[in-house]
Amino acid sequence: MRADARKNRDHLLAIADAVITEQGADVSMRDLARRAEVGLATLLRHFPTRDALLDALLRAGFDELTTLADRLEARLPPGEALKAWLREFVACAHTYRGAVTTMMGAIEDPDSALHASCVAMRGSGARLLERAQAAGQARTDLTGPDLFALGGALIWLHDQPTSAPRADHLLDVVAAAILTPEKP
Questions:
Q1: What own/partner pairs with CB < 8 Å and gap ≥ 24 does 175-179 have?
Q2: How many Å apart are CA 181 and CA 163, to the nearest integer?
Q3: Which end of the chain is more exposed for a tag (fewer CB within 10 A), N or C?
Q4: Maximum Cα interatomic distance, the chain, rounded to a whole number of Å
Q5: What is the per-residue pLDDT across 98-154, written as a single tens digit (0 to 9) for each?
Q6: What is the set of domains in the chain, with CATH numbers?
Q7: Model's pTM, two decimal places?
Q8: Going by C-beta distance under 8 Å and a sequence separation of 6 or more, which residues neighbour residue 10?
């Protein structure tokens, strides 16, 4: 990519990051272009769809979640690692209010620009869940997709103004439902 094209793309991502964090993922592409002081065609040349734009914004966070799973697995007991990862998953996705619907759809749509990063990220959470299950620290009737769905529900709750103040408490409740009591 040419240097000027890279600079334009980085500028668009910086503006999109700020606007979507502020207004949510449903902001119009036209409004994003206006805020970036470029034409809609310029924005669409770099990011032809909202999914492509969200992918560019979320991929780094999802990749970090995948890497974080490895680090947590190495330094924490299985149940603690799973809970810490779930907390970070919710925080990462909540940064882009409203992106949970797109993210949940992307996991099922191989044609979505978000699909590959969502699948990798969900896989890292599933691996932590399986590790906790093998250690007897998590319910055995849950799957990776179940964990992803519960995380999506937590993100959605965090996005709701009436639930946001209780978001951390609700995450603890869900984590307690996933994890089994430690045996003496």
A1: 175/82, 175/83, 175/86, 177/139, 178/82, 178/83, 178/86, 178/129, 178/138, 178/139, 178/142, 178/147, 178/150, 179/79, 179/82, 179/83, 179/132, 179/137, 179/138, 179/139
A2: 27
A3: C
A4: 63
A5: 777 777 777 888 888 778 888 888 899 999 999 999 999 999 999 999 998 898 888
A6: 1-48 (1.10.10.60), 49-178 (1.10.357.10)
A7: 0.79
A8: none
Q: Are 120 and 58 in contact (CB under 8 A)?
A: no
Q: Which residues of 69-85 are buried (b: 16+ CB within 10 A; e: fewer)?
A: beebbeeeebbebbbbb
User: Please, what is the end-to-end C-alpha distance for the chain in angstroms?
Assistant: 58
Tokens 């669409």, located at residue: 44
